[in-house]
Write a structure and sequence with these properties.
The complex is a heterodimer of chains A (379) and B (233). By secondary structure, chain A is α+β, with helices and mostly antiparallel strands. Chain A has 12 helices and 10 strands. In chain B, 31% of the residues lie in helices and 29% in strands. Chain B contains 6 helices and 10 strands. The chains are: A alpha+beta (379), B alpha/beta (233).
Chain lengths: 379, 233
Amino acid sequence: MDLIAFKMLVGNKAKYYGLIFGVMFSTFLMAQQVSLFLGLMVRTCSTIGLVQEASIWVMDPSVRYFDEIKPLPDIDLYRVRGVEGVKWAVPFYKGTAVLKSGSVFQLVTVFGLDDTSLIGLPSQMVLGQAESIRAPNSLIMDEGGWKYIWPTDPFEINRSVEMNDHFVRIVGICDIPPSYASLPQVYTRYSEAVKLTPQGAHTLSYVLVDHEPGTDPAVVAQRIREKAGLLALTSNAFEWRTIWYFIEKTGIPINFGITVLLGFIVGAAIVGQTFYIFILENLMQFAALKAIGVSKGQILKMVLIQGALVGSMGYGLGMGLTALFFLVTKDLVALKGFTLYAPVMVGVGVCVGLIILGASFFSIRRVLVLDPAEVFRGP
Amino acid sequence: MTVALETSHIDQDFLSGDGSILHVLRDINLKIHSGRITMIVGPSGCGKTTLLSILSGILTPTRGSVCIFGKDISHLTDGEKVTFRRQNVGFMFQSYNLIQTLSAAENVAIPLLANGIAYNQALKEAYALLDQLGLEGKGGKFPLKLSGGEQQRVAIARALVHHPKILVCDEPTAALDAAAGQTIMGILTKAALDKDRVVIVVTHDNRIFHFAHTIVTMSDGRILSTEAMQKEP
């Protein structure tokens, strides 16, 4: 009977394609939107992940997420260095400045790295050498930032730009994930960065720390909190603190959630309605099958096979479409770094499964309660 | 001649929409022989279809019993009735009820598939039976590509493919013109009559009465007469 179920379904091409389209559309909408949301959340903390040398980030206790800076006095760097279990501690600066070049007038994010160690220096370079920022008045810019500011210009090094009344040269182009704010990002030494940006009383954004071998970074972070009175988090904990801030304090999850919910509802509505109509149109045939002696279990299995077929086809096509979307847009600056995550594929698969199961059981009710004697009642 | 199907004091009541009880069948006592065609006739609403539903194991009578080849089916559970029908009953419906998205042969194969026969084997048997019924080369066609008479022949094949002990036919000629109706009844008689099979036909069509060996006339839920026709099977 399994093959009969398959043929009953594919024989009605309009309904068959309609069902597949419904599942495909729903899959695409859910997978694409959830992936974009996750990509955006990853962007909020992308810089934290880039600084792989540091296991602990130290900051003012009032900082809620990465972009929210409350500078520390320089003395805090030394207080952190004095905590047991700290292997090294270096300053890390984050600020914004206006970059001027000809008619260009662009706000950029400035990262200042420890002058000696250059901890946090991007490892992937598109052009030039990252270490070139050791030279005075030099910085490296991210690839997306360059394309954003000078979309038609090929990459070049030694281009001179003005920032905060200082002239600096771009000595390299690096490949890093875009930030949440989507501003161009430049890296320079700490001592240069504080000259390139307007300053308040303090300049130290973060203290980057690595723990001694054999110690637990979480324990060292706890010790820093106790001894220095500062907020110290492992890299992973700081990433999650940042992500949770955006989840809890912004409307982003709600907006994406509504779209995902709509994808689910529209998919469920299309599939449910089309499947229901398909069953209704075949009600007399199902009554005949019941009269002939096809059991309820067999009919239920037939409908579930039809649902599984439609679900898997639509899911596969929807996922393919989503993957194609990210493949086509991977080189766009605005969408760089967004990708289809495996857990999203699993989650959307579960949602599609629920849609199919719901639509199948919603439709099959009519058949299961159908009196086979109905078949004698004529057309 | 063997009494293959016997009913004893069958009553069937239904609850109507206003809560009152409708007595659709009353005290039905019937003996039906195998190897013969028994037609149940009567005006609309007299209870023919309800009786057919009981005789084919679809409906359980409110009172009374039905014995088919010595087995009382009136007390079977729903699941047992499904199995009973699947193994023992062949159905022909007024409007054929063929599945339009399946080929003629696949429609015919359904009772075999429901009984667990493999698809290829079931299809082979279906094609062979269609050939016997004059539908050579048409097993692969979809029902909508066949004439009404051809569709009814497909329905006959579907009803007989699993060699049922009972064949129930509900108005088999209602959707056909006179000539096609005669042809179909001729085919049905030839293909279905078997000394070990009960054939019951419910019909309004007096043009096919001459195919019957026994005519049971009903009115108002009761059997008015049972008339043996002067012919030999």
